[in-house]
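Supplementary Text 2. Reproducibility record for the structural model of the 471-residue chain.

All settings were left at their defaults, and a single model was retained for analysis rather than an ensemble. We include the record here because the model underlies the residue-level annotations in Supplementary Table 4.
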Amino acid sequence: MNRRLSSLTIVCVALLALISVSVWAESSRLPTATTRAEDSLPGRASGTRSADLKQVAIPLTGQAHDYDQLLALVGDARFVLLGEATHGTHEFYHERARITQRLIAEKGFAAVAIEGDWADAARVNRYVQHRSGDTGAEQALANFTRFPRWMWGNTDVRDLVEWLRAYNAGLPAATRRIGFYGLDLYNLGDSATAVVQHLERTDGQAARRARERYGCFAGLDQDPIRYGRATAMGRMPSCEVAVEEQLQELQERVASPLRQLDAHAADDEFDALQNARVVKHAEHYYRTLFTGGTNGWNLRDEHMTEMLETLAAHLGTAEQPGKVVVWAHNTHTGDARATELGERGDHNIGQLIRQRYPEQTVLVGFTTYTGTVIASREWDAPGELKQVRPALDESYSGLFHSLGLGNFLLLLSEQPLAPEMVGEPRLERAIGVIYLPETERQSHYFEARLSQQFDAVIHIDESSAVEPLQP
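Retained model, structure tokens:
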């Protein structure tokens, strides 16, 4: 995409950047390149012995044993990334919850990390860990007020949150409780506020320094788009140095051997540190949206990867490394090297984590053929119940529908696959918070090699929309 855009176009790009999978929504970028196979990618090569997909597909029956083979594939992995092909499909949330519950109960996973903001998820985390005054999951989820509210404010997430709280209630008193965390960087303002509030409770002088540093935003921390535009146009100085100083101070504070903290206090310090990390990366993200020369998609996914790694390190011990299950869109969880995204020089969480922890990462994708979804027609518009058009025949969803198996799990890295899965790239559909069925081919499809993008894929042939908690 041309980096030398007019001011008006840059504003549009900034808004689109807030859409979780907007990189796929720009018709000028879809579809263009033909994906090249990467020698370093896991998965099957074109010479692999063929097998009938019908024979290797594992039907999903709703029974407890549905994911036995997926759990076996996970083994001792530390990171399991669960994708989704839309941001508004009930079955994607429901099946991820089923898998997540087993990962926690059977594999020792310590946290759920979502494609949502750290500050918003913190209230949910306190609720599931029995550290808040909220009386129910819906109240705990109330901080997810910005568009798209249905993405985390829906009945499936509510039910998972209640399950996490109940599970924690049954753990021995000395056991670390399962957590619920956010990875994203959009909510700069609330993260800055959280840093100051924490320091006001623990260190008055440090709180004063934090207020002075974050005062650089001149009130625009709650409107970071305006901040980015103002710095790009020279109307106000950058806060780059101030936010870096604040993060560095908190890093030194948390690492100090002189500070002896109990488990709850250590978690609170870590929460403040992560919020400072959000502020630093969000400041960079919003500022560079208007200056060009920087890939906003990469900045965001690098941030989420860093948040994931630091969270896992915080949760781990010498005896038990921290294990985290991630809920995010396929375009974040699948290995970008196997898609058009990688052809453009973009990367994502799935690629970065797989490269850094190749034997400890499992990537799971989701597809659907047709059904209904909650999505908007434009940014910040209300969510609507929309019909999902039947997938194109030449797409993976079309291929899976043609099998006539309904819903199933397909392990991509454990067995020989049919030529359709290992030959030339196929189209993959990505629906984010915006769905444009009238331009679906241009707006929502991209080329990918699914057997290299994911370790497993779950197909829901006819799916239904999530049920938002609020209209």
